[in-house]
Predict the structure.
Amino acid sequence: MQTPFQSKLPEVSTTIFTVMSQLANEQNAINLSQGFPGFESDQALIDLVTKAMKEGHNQYAPMAGLYALRESVCNKLNVLYNSNYNPETDITITAGATQAIFTVISACISKDDEVILFTPAYDCYEPAIVLQGGKPITISLKLPDFSIDWSEVKEKISSKTRMIIINSPHNPSGTVLSKEDLLILQELVSNTGILILSDEVYEHIIFDGLKHQSIARFPELAARSFITASFGKTFHNTGWKMGYCVAPKALMKEFQKVHQFNVFCVNHPIQVAMATYLDNPENYLSLSSFYQQKRDLFLDGIKGSRWEFIPASGTYFQLLSYKNITVEKDVDFARRLTVEHKVASIPISVFNKKNEDPKMLRFCFAKKEETLKQATEILKKL
Ligand code: PMP
Ligand code: GLN
């Protein structure tokens, strides 16, 4: 007799990124769905990784990460955000932001703890909370600009609230939090034991002269916060799955208790290479203008069409409203757009449990100019 198996995540199926990328490949469609650059990482960085491998950095790295890289990251943060992170105690190099997020949640969330998050939300937060027995408390971002209604946050904070997850620049909407947002958050959590997880993977992709409001800029908030980041987004190598988590010493100690048993340490030669590569700020500070050009090219390409939009303020995603084109559900329209018109995108209703569908699709513009032009030629005719 087979033992009955009770799934811990009965409502979870294959992620929309896998589904849409697979469909795009099958249909030979232009893939603007899953977020990854359609061009190569800098050859100089690839050469540094090759050199590190040839020089023999091929065994386990230290558990928290290579000291030189931890130092480079902390220097970057401290210079950019006027923070005070210590490379000895406050940082761990991770297998991408996904592992960092999972590890933070595993280390901090216990049964029945409530975690406030904003929907549409990046898809890896909620399952991680549920796996720990925690309770996701979702708050819908307010249309049309996907802003946070802080009065609703105040209402939803309870004695069980253990954590609030924020993500700026925001995937999938491309909006960014302002200094005022962060100050309100600071006020709301002061005199509570609430922790913050600030997912800042798109920190270097921010447009129109806006400044990234990292949690690291706000000492009172930083004292209760984990920040997660991804080298994949910044250096065009999402397939390397490298990132990091920073937090004050006491929080990082708890993080590392989990980290040491879920990966112990991460890719060593890439850490050697990144430590050198990060020391040139041009390698990340040039990213905003690089991607702003791509956003503008994409939006110019559909100008005058029936698609409606608010230009993304950050990330490499643009939401387009199709309410003037069809009444279909976003999941159905995204599928039909891929099969019939050969452009793949991401429907955003899948990023919230209630499947709220504001009739918008997410397009990734981290692609070569010719790819973006081909896609907009098709989209503007709809
Ligand atoms: N957070 C957000 C908001 C993301 O968009 C992504 C990936 N696109 C991640 C986390 C995960 O990053 P990584 O690929 O480094 O695991
Ligand atoms: N973060 C990427 C996106 O938003 C995808 C990552 C993944 O495939 N899990 O598209």
In short: Residues 15, 17, 34-35, 171 surround glutamine (ligand 2) (CB under 6 Å).
